[in-house]
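note to self: the first set is below, dont mix up w the second
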Amino acid sequence: MTLPQLLLCLSLSMLCISSKPTEKKDRVHHDPQLSEKVHDDAQNFDYDHDAFLGADEAKTFDQLTPEESKERLGKIVSKIDEDKDGFVTVEELKDWIKFAQKRWIYEDVERQWKGHDLNEDGLISWEEYKNATYGYIL
């Protein structure tokens, strides 16, 4: 091995040794949070209310009397109990929470669609999107 080759090999080795290691990426898929609120059952149940009812429905429950709230929650529990055996299983509760979250997403998409479909033809053109998003005048 010649001197230039040896120096090249040595410098490449030093470069590799002194280089910063690459960052390790998180390869685990994390479920999205069920609510923007802090999950602390010792303080309040706002997080649970959002997850169980959906954010919009939870806001309406905050304004009800305890009696009205109990009555409406009883109706919701009847909907959650899919097999009508009088008990809510963990799977039924998980399915309900997923349903409540998806319902909120679909309602938000519908709201956004109406806000961007300025001529109400059921389609959103690039011009409509620009106007609704960036405030350009038609």
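second set (the one i keep forgetting abt)
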Amino acid sequence: MSNLEINSSSFSQEMKLPLSPPLVEGSALEPRGCVRKDMNEIEEKSKDIIKFTAEKLSIDEVSQLVVSPLCGAVSLFVGTTRNNFEGKKVISLEYEAYLPMAENEIRKICSDIRQKWPVRHIAVFHRLGLVPVSEASIIIAVSSAHRASSLEAVSYAIDTLKAKVPIWKK
């Protein structure tokens, strides 16, 4: 047999799992001890979480900050240091910021996002100091009920941040 041939006997038969219905209050399938509130009773205050740090950024940490039981979407943008710029080798980038103004501008971006899209939580984490190649310099996470809102909000956030926020890299 050549490398390009596919032997159908080497693939296992597709196994379909039964779809289980979503758990509904009062259903026989609902786990015991699980108390559910009516959707109107769930009160979760929207959060804008902004952090500047010299420490390595964690994608998991930032994404978990915006998770909500009211949301079906969490969208992320992760900006990393690449190994080249205009044909030159890059080993690391160094970021500086005027923190009072940078934080204020990011709060304005969050406010603008909330006026344009129905989002729940927004997190913007930016690293300062040296950021080696392949490590994250910025993580933006947004949660919303539906994916379109969070995807559009994340795109708007990074574009506006790069244009308006006093953060410099060298």
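remember for set 2: The helical segments are 59-66, 99-116, 147-164.
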